[in-house]
Amino acid sequence: MTVKEIKTFELDPEAFIKDKVAEIREAVGNGCAVNALSGGVDSSVVTLLGHRALSDRLKTCFIDNALMREGEPEKVAGLFKSLGVPVQLLDAKAEFLAALKGITDPEEKREAVTQTFYKRVFGRLVRESGAKFLLQGTILTDIDETVAGIKRQHNVFEQLGIDPQEAFGYRILEPVVQLRKDGVRKVAKALGLPEGLYNRMPFPGPALAARVIGEATAERLETARKANAIVEQELESSGAFQYMAIVHQDRVTGMREGKREFGLQIEVRSWESVDARVAKPSRISFDVLEKLASRLTSEIPGVVSVTYNIASKPPSTMEAV
Amino acid sequence: MTVKEIKTFELDPEAFIKDKVAEIREAVGNGCAVNALSGGVDSSVVTLLGHRALSDRLKTCFIDNALMREGEPEKVAGLFKSLGVPVQLLDAKAEFLAALKGITDPEEKREAVTQTFYKRVFGRLVRESGAKFLLQGTILTDIDETVAGIKRQHNVFEQLGIDPQEAFGYRILEPVVQLRKDGVRKVAKALGLPEGLYNRMPFPGPALAARVIGEATAERLETARKANAIVEQELESSGAFQYMAIVHQDRVTGMREGKREFGLQIEVRSWESVDARVAKPSRISFDVLEKLASRLTSEIPGVVSVTYNIASKPPSTMEAV
């Protein structure tokens, strides 16, 4: 089963929305569907398409995994409430933090977040919902390098802990799978989603767990949350491709009130890039860099040192973890 | 016993040299003296004063502690050879590396370097030399915050592993103790030392061990050595107060030849300061910063990421360790 790409220049968003709403309606019939909303553009578009097609036969849930940015759960819930789409907020913070406990290796950290989401939290939700239809925000870029079609969908069931025998009754719907990111943005705009949502900066899968070097404890995630909020406030108007704060595990010497203090270091990165394949550090003025450092050291407990990335990608990557 | 300060503005370097040479000659008489040359301005001045006073009855040794900057042992030995001053090069690399093995705490690292120098390497040298006179480059700033006089000198003997009973026969001579750094520089100039030596940037006591976060192994010190050489080359003409490279212990994600590589991060710091009490990061142009990052990632194996310090002192300190 090959996926037929709809190129962005030939995409008619209104017609696309009409088609997809009809397809979802036809597929689900009188049944129920379930989906997870992350607040990103892909899952937001899928939520709105599903809601137009099924109204309250679509159960959308937003999972608070303890790795969200400052105020994000409230912002996403508020937005969909204002659009008339009911979203169930599921507090899974303890479950994710337990899964991340003691893990310092970046790959293992990613795996822990993915497994907790699929096998445990969302898998349980799907199984308990009774819904046989699962709406997913997969886009073409997600499957470019994997085997498309049936095999991939099998893997999803496996990840959800649904027996392939049983899985016979389940069906996964991927209404935006023919689009790439810019196509999804066009549809998001046509659906009336605010620009702040569909033009938002890329955010890594493991969320704030990727912004902490070493173990992602509740305390260290809170430091990363505050630091990223400050960096986003100060660099929002810069027009950079992506910017972030990373909490290091290394301790460095600092001083407070005349005494040596062994403290935290925050690394700020801001990237100039077209497609994330290659990137250069943004040439931010020292007035802004020093203001950033001053806010990070004065507003976040324990921070005594702040650095700014000056390497390019490659050999660096955008994220540190 | 109080030390009488000679203010820099009232210092006549030629008269000072004449006085100190006479004092050393009178104190040592027909005996022998020993001193350790680090290559810094204080110990270099003391070596020249001692040599003028005692000629070959002064035994000067340069201890290679494995923590020196690139080419430093050769440079210092070459300079003093050209000045006609014999310097014994003592290879104590293995002893220092053994003492640093497994130590990650900055305070313990400093202590290991100090103890190895005094109690083991230099202490042994003093005891075995038979010399009863020890020339030291103590300056007034070194004793400002400690108790001056006898008690302090007692501590030196203790550090050298010389029994206070025995120490009765020993005597410590501190020819530059009445001066501060700028006074020592004036004397260095008058003694004919090259400007590169007496105007050189401050370098921390534990040397490159202070430029490595975590364990200072031979391999990690070599990385710090290469990184500091590159930073010094690129920033030498900047006129900054102090600049350095720090090898982090944290590993960050990078990529080489299309593959993920879990690599090293180097932090560059460059400070603007008058007296090191407060300091701000140098506002280096991004052309220079990017060149630095490019050299550090391409010339040093394993380095995938480079950052630049943007915090001020306080709450940061100049050095990270």
Overview of the molecule:
- The structure is a homodimer of 321-residue chains.
- The first copy, chain A, has helices at residues 13-28, 41-54, 72-82, 93-100, 106-129, 140-143, 150-159, 181-190, 195-198, 218-235, 286-299, and strands at residues 33-36, 58-64, 87-91, 133-135, 171-173, 242-256, 259-272, 280-281, 303-309.
- Chain A is of the alpha/beta class.
- In chain A, a hairpin with a 7-residue loop joins strand 7 (259-272) and strand 8.
- The longest helix of chain A has 24 residues, at 106-129.
- The model of chain A has no long low-confidence stretch (mean pLDDT 91).
- At the A-B interface, strand 6, strand 7, strand 8, helix 11 and strand 9 of A face strand 6, strand 7, strand 8, helix 11 and strand 9 of B.
- Strand 9 (303-309) of chain A pairs antiparallel with strand 9 (303-309) of chain B.
Can you give me a brief rundown of this structure?
Two copies of one chain form a homodimer. Chain A contains eleven helices and nine strands.
Q: What percent strand of chain A?
A: 15-25%
Estimated helix fraction of chain A: 40-55%
Q: What is the overall silhouette of chain A? A: globular
The count of helical stretches of chain A stands at 11
Largest interface: A-B, 47 and 46 residues
Number of strands of chain A: 9
Give me the oligomer status. homodimer
Poorly predicted regions of chain A: none
The CA-CA distance between the termini of chain A, in Å, is 34 Å
Rg of chain A, please?
A: 21 Å
Give the strand order of the largest sheet of chain A, numbering strands 1, 2, ... along the chain. Answer: 3-2-1-4-5
Structural class of chain A: alpha/beta
Major sheet size, sense and barrel closure of chain A = 5 strands, parallel
Helix/strand order of chain A: HEHEHEHHEHHEHHHEEEHE
Overall pLDDT level of chain A: 91
